[in-house]
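Notes on consecutive records. When two proteins share a document, each keeps its own sequence and its own token line. Never mix them. Below: protein one.
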Amino acid sequence: MKIIATINEKGGSGKSTIATNLACALHRQGARVVLIDADPQGTTRDWRAASPEGANVPAVIGADRPKELQAAIKDASADYVVIDTPAKAGDMSAAVVSAADIALIVIQPSGADVWASAPTVRLVRQKLDMGREIDAAFLVNRAAANTRLSKLIRDGEWNDYGIDQMKSTVSNRVSFAIALTQGVSVFDMPDTAAQAEITNIIQELKEANWL
């Protein structure tokens, strides 16, 4: 079982969007997937509650305390567990990083998102310093095609954290917001470009032997 966490201490970076769509993509590829909503705000649980009957989406479990998270992971019968994490979580962020095999640090093209990622980077480094394994990378979300700031963030010149940055990025597409509201994924939408962006993330993770 591989445990994938979408994480950043800053709220509004799009962690839930990435988590739900990655989980749905893996689910549609035939894997057994469980989504864990570790955010007390319950965005992923609300997403699943909004799903139409018979929707082709994975199960969602709420676990927004460290002990609940540990129990949910232990009980999960899955190939992949995807964890959607809260902002400014403190002990919860530490518990998620401790459990995760892969940490995708989701950032928007903004200095605030980059700065907010520092606590997560520290948690990743602490885990590595303890001799434990974790693969971690920044994932740029809501990138605009023609803005200087988006290009700067995508190019990675700001990244002096010693953490990888994914080549794959996710654009600022309305289909992601619609899918989240309707309890589905972009694979239920007619937006093939959005679908390709999520598929590219999974392919890049597989090529890196992280999945």
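Protein two starts on the next line and is unrelated to protein one.
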Amino acid sequence: MAREPTRPEPTSPVPTDGAVRLRVRYAECDPFGVAHHSSYVPWLEEARTELLRDTGVTYAQLEKAGVFLVITKLELKYRRPVRYDDVVEVRTRVVGGSRIKIRHEYEVWLFERLGAAPDFSDPAVPTDGVCAVASTELACVDAAGRPQALPGWLAQA
């Protein structure tokens, strides 16, 4: 009988919020220099991945142990355009879940435009700095895609 891989354990307290800054790359933009709507999904993933990494556990370690987190729901609302070479800060919060699922909420903040803090009097800049809001729901599955319980420490987050 094959032995199941050991599930990784966190080495730091499990955070419930975090942030990551990203510079909008040329390849992520449309011909008008506006970040394409599809670019936001990888930004959310990076923010979520870094939040997990802050525990001392990586997605790669989870997957090696047979724990896979798949997106079952994604909602994204765009408020103002983000442009080529802007710096955005993606803020992530764990907002709930269950034994099998975990939910996150995100805000994409405009942190820098044209090498400086954004001009909030510019109508292209949201007055609160939030260019997009999003949420995801992830389910924990095994290598065959069958639902399984989240690692206890992750479910408690």
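For the record: The longest helix spans residues 40-53.
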